[in-house]
Structures are given as structure tokens and as C-alpha cells.
Write a structure and sequence with these properties.
By secondary structure, the chain is mostly beta strands. Helix content is 8%, strand content 39%. The protein has a ten-stranded antiparallel sheet with strand order 2-3-6-7-1-12-11-10-8-9, with helices on one face. A two-stranded antiparallel ribbon has the order 4-5. Strand 8 (128-135) and strand 9 (141-151) form a beta hairpin. It is globular and about 55 Å long.
């Protein structure tokens, strides 16, 4: 049924307003090998879906283990799945990625601080589970700190004079129907129970 809600974990990117009118395929890296699909008209959505062409890969240690047993291990071959969904409304254009889809898109077209700003606006500030910092010292250092339970920003020992907040993970504020929010740079990630008719409401 179309109205049945499905739990999804989405990575969202906001397109810069000056690029809202470019072709959908231009949001992808030129090296991306994808199949393009138009959206079903019954959903009344303006957008397109791109699926990475399947590519079978084997782990680098496959040959070693096959030599150990003297026969091929076909079950070690695997395929990764990646997709990019682009939705355009009168208000904005957003890209949602699935699997490894974020590696298919060209980041120059997206608002660079959308992820971190949106996360800070939607997270309970005493629910943080991890923060990523860029510390400006004699030598720039990137640090990731995790808390054993939901905590406020003060627990992470941030020095506002030299630490730049790069990413955060935590729980949503009351009234925001999302789960497991993370945000950093241009990507805003969250879990949501949603059906197709509601996807445009995220844009």
C-alpha cells in the first residue's frame, strides 16, 4: 500500500539556490555510473532517481583464503547499493542519498554548512552523543568525542577560542518527528517513518 510508512535513514543535502535550475544529472559527479529513473506521475513529485550501476567486488583477502582451502569462494563476492533521489519544490531542491549514494554527488552544488546548522537547530542540546571538532592549535587537529550517555555540549570540553564544531549526533527536540539526528558540513542525516506522499514535506 502506498500509504504504509517505512522507516528510512536518510542523508539530506540542500542545493544552493543559484543551482536550482540545472539538470538533475549535473548534481552527480561526472565519474558516477548510474541509471536514471523518472518518478511515477501519480505521486506528483518533481524529481529523479539515480541508481548506481551494480558492480561486483571481492575483498582483497579473497585470494588468500581461497588458497587456504584450495577452492573458489563465490560467496565472498558482494555488491554495494547506492542511490540518489532529487526532489524539487517551489521552495527548494534537495538531494537524499541511500547506501553509498553520497559518494555519487558533486558537493560543490550544496550548501556547505546545511548539515551542522540544521542539526543544531533540531537537536536537544542536552542529548548529544558525539561531536567532531577541528582544533586550531600549532598544528590543526581533528577530534571525535563520544559520550557514554546523552549529554550537554559542556561535557565534551569544547574551547570556543580554538575549537570549531564540525559535526554532532543526538536526539531531536520535542515535536520534531525524526530519530538519530546527525549533521556535519553539508549533510544532515536522520531516521524517519515516512510514506511517499510525505517526502515533499522534507524539502
Amino acid at each position: 500500500m502506498d500509504d504504509k510508512k517505512l522507516y528510512l535513514y536518510l542523508n539530506a543535502f540542500l542545493v544552493k539556490s543559484e543551482y536550482a535550475s540545472i539538470k538533475y544529472s549535473d548534481f552527480l559527479k561526472t565519474s558516477s555510473q548510474v541509471n536514471a529513473y523518472e518518478l511515477d506521475n501519480k505521486h506528483e513529485l518533481d524529481g529523479m532517481l539515480f541508481i548506481k550501476k551494480p558492480e561486483e567486488k571481492s575483498p582483497i583477502w579473497r585470494g588468500f583464503t581461497e588458497k587456504l582451502i584450495g577452492s573458489p569462494l563465490g560467496e565472498l563476492a558482494n555488491r554495494s547499493s547506492s542511490a540518489v533521489l532529487i526532489i524539487k519544490t517551489a521552495k527548494a531542491t534537495m538531494v537524499f542519498t541511500f547506501g553509498y549514494g553520497r559518494f555519487l554527488i558533486d558537493t560543490q552544488y550544496f550548501v556547505h554548512d546545511f548539515g551542522i546548522k540544521t542539526a543544531l537547530n533540531t537537536l536537544k542540546h542536552d542529548s548529544l552523543r558525539s561531536v567532531d571538532l577541528f582544533t586550531l592549535e600549532d598544528q590543526a587537529v581533528q577530534k571525535k568525542s563520544q559520550a557514554s550517555r546523552e549529554s550537554s555540549i559542556g561535557v565534551f570540553g569544547i574551547d570556543i577560542s580554538r575549537d570549531v564544531l564540525r559535526a554532532v549526533t543526538g536526539s531531536p527536540k520535542s515535536g520534531i518527528n525524526l530519530k538519530n539526528i546527525s549533521g556535519g558540513d553539508s549533510v544532515y542525516s536522520f531516521g524517519i517513518e515516512i510514506n511517499i506522499s510525505e517526502i515533499a514535506c522534507l524539502v
